[in-house]
Amino acid sequence: MFERKLGKQFGILLLLVAFWGVVEFMLKTGILNPFYELNLILIGINIILAVSLNLINGFNGQFSIGHAGFMAVGAYGAAIITLKAQLPFAMALLFGAVLAGIFGLLVGLPTLRLRGDYLAIATLGFGEIIRGMIVNIDYIGGAYGLSGIPKLANWTWIFALTVLTVIVIANFVNSTHGRATISIRENEIAAEAMGINTTKYKVMAFVIGSFFAGLAGGLHAHYFYTIQPNTFNFLKSFDILVMVVLGGQGSITGSIIAAVGLTILSASLQSLAALRLVIYALLLIVIMLFRPQGLMGTKEFSLKMFRKKSKDKEGKQHGSAVGQ
Amino acid sequence: GGGGEQKAADAKEIVIGGNFEMSGNVATFGTAAVNGAKLYFEEVNAAGGVLDKQIKFVTLDNKSDATESANVATRLITQDKVVAILGATTSGNTLGYIQVAADNKIPVLSSSATNPDVTVDPNTKAVRDYIFRACFIDPFQGTVMANFSMQDLQAKTAVIYVDNQSPYSKGLAQFFEESFVKQGGTIVGREAYVPEDQDFKATLTKIKGMNPDVIYLPGYYEQVGKIVKQGRELGIDVPFLGGDGWDSPKLAEIAGPAALAGTFFSNHYSSEQDDPNVVAFVEKYKGKYGETPDSMAALGYDAAVLIVEAIKNSGDGTPEKIKEALAATKDVQAVTGKLSLDANHNPIKGAAILEMVDGKQVYKTYVNP
Amino acid sequence: MLKVDDIHVYYGAIHAIKGISLEVPQGKIVTLIGANGAGKTTTLNTICGLIKPKTGKVYFEDKDITGVATQEIVKRGLTQVPEGRRIFANMPIYENLELGAYLKKDKKEVAESMERVYKRFPRLLERKNQLAGSLSGGEQQMLAMGRALMSKPRLLLLDEPSMGLSPILVKEIFSIIKELNEQGTTILLVEQNAKMALSIAHKGYVVETGRIVLAGDAKELLESPEVKKAYLGG
Amino acid sequence: MEVFLQQLINGVSLGSIYALIALGYTMVYGIVQLINFAHGDVYMVGAYLGFFATAILGWSFLPALLMSMFVCACLGVTIEKLAYKPLRMAPRIAALITAIGVSLFLEYGMMLLVGPQVRTFPQVLTEVQWKLFGSITVTNRQVIILVVTIALMLLLQYIVHKTMIGKAMRAVSHDKQAAQLMGINVNNTISATFAIGSSLAAAAGVLVGIYYNAINPLMGIMPGLKAFVAAVLGGIGIIPGAMTGGFLLGIVEAMVSGYGKSLYRDPVAFIILIIILIVKPAGLFGKNIREKV
Amino acid sequence: MALLSVNNLSISFGGLKAVSDLNLSLEQGDLAGLIGPNGAGKTTAFNMLTGVYLPTSGDILLDGKSLVGLKPYQINHRGVARTFQNIRLFSDLTVIDNLKIAYHSHAKYGLLGAIARLPGFYSGEKEMHDKSMELLKIFKLDNKAEELAKNLPYGEQRRLEIARAMATQPRVLLLDEPAAGMNPQETHDLMELIRWIRHEFGLTILLIEHDMSLVMGVCEKIYVLDYGQIIAVGTPDDIRNNPRVIEAYLGEEAS
Ligand SMILES: Nc1ncnc2c1ncn2[C@@H]1O[C@H](COP(=O)(O)OP(=O)(O)OP(=O)(O)O)[C@@H](O)[C@H]1O
Ligand SMILES: Nc1ncnc2c1ncn2[C@@H]1O[C@H](COP(=O)(O)OP(=O)(O)OP(=O)(O)O)[C@@H](O)[C@H]1O
Ligand SMILES: [Mg+2]
Ligand SMILES: [Mg+2]
């Protein structure tokens, strides 16, 4: 269990590269037209957003609903670098993400003493403060937003960074640091008594989460040419929250599945106007009613699951046989 | 790409895309514009179509969001293979997707995006080849109202009260201010609200204390109605001035006729105008939708008129030719006037100045550019 | 008075109660003892309708109350003092007691019941305006009992009333139980403290992993070697 | 001074609207521990019902108000039964997401039904204006809303703390099973909570609709959010807290607009909110009860 | 010098003086009990010892160094671990993860090692796993390693809490009512276990308990607290026969 399984890791890498290659080929040859590309990009961005919010809400158990604010910081931060400083894209992304991470630190430190819904309101407030500030700064376009941002993001960038985000967060979560983070969700008092520096790990979850939200923002800005403060309002934060809860708080694969599913759903309902949101709303309600813990709960999707399930079934039959 | 052109030329119908706000915070505008455009397309189809083909108008909802707008445009272009796109109604949502259209060489005709940047790249000052509009632009409207307030109302001081989330409103304000100051006036205060606001009294109380000769209020009718009403309640009796966003029968309902006494706005047209084109349009619209069209509806209709005219003139209905035809638009009779597009792809048309009297729009003057 | 007939209870896939039957005769104290997780609490919760059994029946005074809503069962004169006391922590003592008499519409009767409870637990009267959550463990246990008595139950279910209490309070609680019984309340008592429980009870049942494994006269059980070994510490 | 007084009046009248919505919010919140994001949309539905009664059916103010409150009470109970009740045992966040779902459903369902455009109320309450100290203006509608808010606050406080149903509500909020053991019907109690909360929202909707004279299907989003903020500011579940929070928020907004820059109103209001929460982590009236270890 | 010494420790909540002038002194290897009526302030004393509450006055010295003002996790790092009166496990996590979390402060790799999966990560994880399994074996929980903590029977949950506290590798172990809700047989087994770990790990143990068979059975020294004050200290026999203790706590005919 604890030896480095180079073979398996290499296999996964190969699979990822193959997936990237096939899609890239299909995009280049036009088998997949730009509409598909755009939605693949959106899926990638949404995965980064959902997985990073899941770290804060799902794994760390802090109720944050201001994720779009950090995304805005990353988007504007990155766009300024390419637009006003004409520096390379990678630097812009890094700058945006780091800036968002710094904001995460600024938000995280003072609000950590708040719990539950009080924290939620504070994070929502921060999201709105960030947006309110942006609206009032003419240098970055005020309410108009920034336009003319070069389209530097593409499938390759998004794919690589989405994979990177997932790997970093998954590796974090599946380590002693991740367990420390999760223990805070489970029982903060006990965690502290067991030697976990809860403040450190709460801030860390916030900073890592907002860093990646910022990265998503930077990618967004450099794919859609323009960014506007309104794109990052509290409704956007709710969208991300919905992905996390729908997928399952504490399940990375759940977040990924939900991000993919909801992005595709949204795209396929475009022609329905108000009806689309009614359908979306009903779907949310129905899914939550049937799977209140989210699609995946806190479990991760894996092929093993199926094997285990069939084993469970055997076990059950066995049990009932004894009962008779 | 090439595939799209081929298809458009061969198909039995011409597909035109609509990228509009059907949900979200400005769903009213998008809905009105789509209604207007649909009305004209139906007329054309009933009369045999254009280039002997029927028009198919595919509208998708951009949720009043710039990113969604890009998403919708991509889908229209690549899935529905449209030859041109109408929309969006706001400058922000239009700016959100014009690059997508330009990259794919599909012409865009916005019905009511009035910000100059929509057709001219602010960084390079180059005209955007594929982007056109059916409405006049902010500088023109702002300037018209500044002139009117100084010359007709003898104003020396003004307060500007803008919708902080609307590039449209801020644009008008900027050009009003430039022109007002250039002619020797003073702006004594700049205030802002957000469209979700219900209560404006705090800011209005402050404005009252500034004692301006006029208050420039370049917003949309729903908020404007409340602002004027609450302003009058607080005892502000100076004129309120605004732009085309005021145009809706709802304005008088919200503010009440009495409060609107002494308010003026610039507009593309007036549903009260006795111009036969306007009368006919208003009648048709009322017949179909059961309500009086506002300027969003009129501009949606006009955008449809312009695009059909361009398709007719393009000869083959390919995006490339439609673009060229749009650029060459000249003297097309539409509801809001006889339209020609200038070098910056903006229609050359004058503005009507309307005064609200007893809750009715009364035609005051017509200002030519 | 109470008859439980072969109930089976599941928590999801977990088969917690695998066929329990028991009887509580009028005017007696019956005790249910058994290891942790044996299913004692589950049995009590099933009796008072908080959990529905998958199969089996519960009869109270010869009427079938299986599947009847808890508040209806309470109306018929059966109340439980739940495990862990579950008092309403953010309400004062007197409001807790008032809620105990929620179903009693007669104001005078409620006032009288409250008098009786205060008389039995003078400590509660001293502190009647104090928030229940700030009481010590023993006081909370008294409140929980007092609250249950407000509805004047004919059958009282008690779930580990001595848990976490100091030896002196344990004795007090048991003497209160005895006294209550002598005044006519029938009692079904669940206890870890098997020795004490059996010494005041008339009848006892031993539960193990969801089944009754032993039943009989309390005094006999107290002497039985199996019980001695497993529950009385050798 | 005059300006200050006028601003104070502006703030109080704006705040009384936040407070009015926040009352129902905080009540539902206090009893079922659910951030009912749909509350703002029930308020919107209430406004439409009032509009329907007055503008289409031509009813007068009071019957319209009562009808709207009654229908919304039923709506609230139905929403609870269908969307929240099945999730009582589920993690709280699940109910929160369905609340967002219900909120979207009401907003866009209404938009489908009546279209996105604004509607205006007929003049059902003739407006009277009073001038104080020369130039300070107050309207009868402002006074009505203020009086109604305070009256409802007192009424609610009485219901929750003095009546048996109120005690049952608090018991249910603390421990549902223990409440059942007292003979309390948990379902009915929660239904009553939603009925009262929703009818309060409806009352707010009708009053605000008449006061500002314009309603649209998305009108509930912002006031809903602000009312939520007000409720949290006052301390979740605390009825006088919600009212105070509402007034405070209204006054802060008015003062920032009046003396600061209207552009910065929302950010400043939120900054003040966060500062208050950092100083008083359980809101103004909330006790910061530390979990007993 | 005593390993843990508590000097004149007091705390009040509002007007209530929950603990006043508490003095305790434990040598390396001591196994002591803290008893007293409900609400006497026993748990509150533990809470001060572990940094959950800040004492109003007085001092706590571990090896001569003060613990007052440190955060709970810092006190844990100094070598004081505890269990809780109301079980506080990480109930949705597996048994073994509960222990691994407690091993966290002894982890052998850093943040970078975890994210980049450097070789140190694998060896570090293996070590934690092995050590956790060893502890589980001691507590007879190794066959339940992959079970969710909340699915364990109550008695096993109590054992798991002790095991988890042990995983932080403490020098002083504080147990708050470890036998609560256990039947006599389970209590008996627990006594054996407590004796054994004290011996095996050279621990110093202080425990709160209302079950006199356990307290009298394992503790060598007993402190009795009433209304926040020590009213008696001594061997089990001393305590059993102390009239003040009988009156306040044990009642007549002490068992
Ligand atoms: N809500 C629940 N979900 C799943 N399993 C449960 C639940 N409640 C109890 N169980 C399981 O049912 C079985 C019986 O539990 P119950 O609480 O009735 O035991 P008990 O005899 O009262 O034990 P104790 O002496 O610890 O109170 C146990 O195995 C327990 O783990
Ligand atoms: N956070 C707090 N705020 C106010 N009072 C408190 C707090 N914590 C404890 N107390 C009070 O301090 C006193 C001592 O409580 P503590 O929990 O230490 O008792 P204990 O000796 O552990 O009793 P038990 O044996 O019942 O567990 C009690 O009166 C309790 O109500
Ligand atoms: Mg039990
Ligand atoms: Mg204690």
UniProtKB/TrEMBL annotation, chain A:
Organism in which the protein naturally occurs: Desulforamulus aquiferis
GO cellular component: plasma membrane
Molecular function, one GO term: branched-chain amino acid transmembrane transporter activity
Keywords carried by this UniProt record: Cell membrane, Membrane, Transmembrane, Transmembrane helix
Location relative to the cell: Cell membrane
Topology of this chain in the membrane: Multi-pass membrane protein
Main localization (coarse): membrane
Designated name of the protein: Branched-chain amino acid ABC transporter permease
Pfam families the UniProt entry points to: BPD_transp_2
TM helices/strands, residue ranges: 12-32, 38-56, 63-83, 89-109, 116-135, 155-173, 203-225, 240-265, 272-290
The keyword Repeat appears for this protein: no
UniProtKB/TrEMBL annotation, chain C:
Pfam families per the UniProt record, alphabetical: ABC_tran
SMART domains: AAA (SM00382)
One Gene Ontology molecular-function label: branched-chain amino acid transmembrane transporter activity
Family annotation (InterPro entries): AAA+_ATPase, ABC_branched_ATPase_LivF/BraG, ABC_transporter-like_ATP-bd, ABC_transporter-like_CS, BCAA_Transport_ATP-bd_LivF, P-loop_NTPase
Keywords noted in UniProt: Amino-acid transport, ATP-binding, Nucleotide-binding, Transport
GO BP of this protein: L-amino acid transport
All copies of domain ABC transporter, residue ranges: 2-234
Superkingdom field: Bacteria
Record's keyword annotation contains Transport: yes
Stored PROSITE patterns: ABC_TRANSPORTER_1, ABC_TRANSPORTER_2
Entry's family note: Belongs to the ABC transporter superfamily.
Protein name per the record: ABC transporter ATP-binding protein
Native source organism of the sequence: Desulforamulus aquiferis
TrEMBL record, chain D:
One term under GO cellular component: plasma membrane
Transmembrane region(s): 12-35, 47-72, 93-114, 143-160, 192-215, 227-256, 268-286
InterPro entries: ABC_BtuC-like, ABC_transp_permease, BCAA_transport_permease
Membrane topology note: Multi-pass membrane protein
The UniProt record lists the keyword Membrane: yes
Keyword Protease tagged: no
Annotated keywords: Amino-acid transport, Cell inner membrane, Cell membrane, Membrane, Transmembrane, Transmembrane helix, Transport
Pfam annotation, one family: BPD_transp_2
A GO MF term: L-valine transmembrane transporter activity
Intracellular or extracellular location(s): Cell membrane
GO biological process: D-alanine transmembrane transport; L-alanine transport; L-isoleucine import across plasma membrane
Family recorded in the similarity comment: Belongs to the binding-protein-dependent transport system permease family. LivHM subfamily.
Record protein name field: Branched-chain amino acid ABC transporter permease
Automatic annotation (TrEMBL), chain E:
A biological process from GO: L-valine import across plasma membrane
Stretches assigned to the ABC transporter domain: 4-252
A Pfam family that the UniProt record links to this protein: BCA_ABC_TP_C
Domain of life of the native organism: Bacteria
Keywords: ATP-binding, Nucleotide-binding, Transport
GO cellular component: plasma membrane
Residues spanning the signal sequence: none
The UniProt record lists the keyword ATP-binding: yes
GO molecular function: ATP binding; ATP hydrolysis activity; L-isoleucine transmembrane transporter activity; L-phenylalanine transmembrane transporter activity; L-valine transmembrane transporter activity
PANTHER family: AMINO ACID ABC TRANSPORTER ATP-BINDING PROTEIN, CONSERVED COMPONENT OF ABC TRANSPORTER FOR NATURAL AMINO ACIDS-RELATED
Protein name, as recorded: ABC transporter ATP-binding protein
Species in which this protein is naturally found: Desulforamulus aquiferis
